[in-house]
Amino acid sequence: MKKLIFIALIFLSISCSNKNTKEKVKEQEYIPPEPILTPIKKPSEIAAERRRHLKELKEQEEKEQRDPLTLEDFSLMKGEIFVQLYSAVEDYNFFSSNNAITLYENQKMKNFDGLEIGWTCFDNHNKYVYYIETSSPKYSTKRNIQVGSTIEEVFDKYGKQDHNDEMIIFEMSSAQYECQLDLIFYIENNKVSKIHIEGAD
Contact, 135 vs 121, CB < 8 A? Predict the structure, then answer.
């Protein structure tokens, strides 16, 4: 009798051990995480993203291919009138034809039909234009930007440029004149309100 009880206890012990082992294995079973569902884009959204990407590539390509600035870009013109930075004042007939104007060193000629020009003497004889400015839509740059042109038109002609709400500045270093040339477009309501061109030390 004692022997049967002993065998029964051993059997019961083995059964409990197997049960505990199965429960532990069950507890340690890997539970995969819930899948992350990526929203499926609509065909219209995919097409819009592609158009934006192509537009960015085109703008970058146009920017890289755009002609670099030259000295002629630092000028204003209207019909036969063409005034360029660091050109000789004596070359312009409209100066000599205006008898009311007398040229002195570091003088300005203001409001000449909407154009203001500053000049200086680099030597004892010749006078050179060192700044040009206009707020009149009569004059345009070499790339056909004038007062009233939009910011987008400026960027289209000269390339994208960092700017603030008041002005856009394009610069070019000149080894010939040992200075920096500035082409400045003043902005009001997203349009050019004034053009200022000068040589800066």
Answer: no
Q: Which residues contact 90 (CB under 8 A, 6 or more apart)?
A: 96, 126, 127
Q: Is 148 left (phi over 0), alpha (psi -120 to 50) or beta?
A: left
CA dihedral 164, 75, 129, 181 (to 10 degrees): 40
Q: What are phi and psi of 165, to 5 degrees?
A: -75, -10
Asked whether 75 and 141 are in contact (CB, 8 A), the reply is yes
Q: What is the pTM of this model?
A: 0.62
pLDDT digits (tens, 9 = 90+) for 109-125: 655 678 888 877 766 66
What gap in Å lies between CA 155 and CA 63, rounded to an integer?
9
How does residue 18 score in pLDDT terms, banded at 50, 70 and 90?
Answer: low
Contact yes or no for 122/133 (Cβ under 8 A): no
Residues listed for the chain: 201
Question: Under 8 Å CB-to-CB from 168, ≥6 apart: which residues?
Answer: 151, 154, 161, 184, 185, 187
Contacts of 72 (CB under 8 A, 6+ apart): 84, 142
Q: Closest by alpha carbon to 172, among 88, 59, 67?
A: 67
Q: Are 196 and 184 in contact (CB under 8 A)?
A: yes
Please give the structure tokens belonging to residue 46.
């995919």
Strands (E), the chain: 75-78, 81-84, 108-112, 115-121, 127-134, 167-174, 179-188, 191-200
